[in-house]
Here is the input.
Amino acid sequence: MEGKKRLGPIRKKGMGLFMLMAVIMALIGVQLWGIGDSVVTMVTYNMRDWGLSFGESGTVPRGNADAEELKKLNSYYVAPTEEKIIYLTFDAGYESGQTEQILDALKKHEVPAAFFLVGHYMESCPDLVRRMAKEGHVVANHTMHHPNMSQLKDRAAFEKELTDLEALYYEITGEEMKKFYRPPEGKFSETNLKMAQELGYTTCFWSLAYADWDQNAQPSREEAFHKLLGRIHPGAIVLLHSTSATNAAIMDELITRYKEMGYTFGSLTDLQK
Here is the structure.
């Protein structure tokens, strides 16, 4: 009994600390989200890293922001359709010599894609940018300098990252850039999405991606097909990196196998209709 009496204040103190921590966590927005195959703890402060939690094969994964809530901000991670339509998108900050092979495969199969580019890519590879545009692909905004946009609370700074790239694209192609935006590294906040919307942009996250970005640790063909075929679903916005040697090597066969599964390919412009 004496032992229990002595532990009483300790238990109360411990419970008080627990409640305090719970309040602090609620205030700063600690959340658990599935990213790829893992679960991580994230402190948001109104900032988030885009993440997905996958269910059964062929089903739409759950994002860490609701699709209907995102739509109110003109933002998407999956197209609102039950038809077997998918959207191929590529991110690129630099050219690694793989893009021409990817473009060749897209041209062979008459498949539209979207390329989210940064300023360095456009400045260093204007011929490839012109080819993308000429062959009917969407050349989209991945910002001028690829910063963490969720940290840019100043409207002018946020806008400049987008409009500077727009100006560079116009200088290269003589055309206005289509207004699709992808936050670098998937880092975003509700404030960012609102600012992008006010600037006329559709924000595009993704519902399928895999670890293809590291030049020194490229996935095998088997790994790539396992993820990209096993997790495909209606309305999928597929994120790939055009710097990936694996992606370049499998693109022709990947498109063929998607078609054999009954999928067709749409353009992100469908989201703006």
Notes: The first strand starts at residue 30 and ends at 35. The longest helix spans residues 2-28. The CA atoms of residues 40 and 65 lie 15 Å apart. The mean pLDDT is 87.
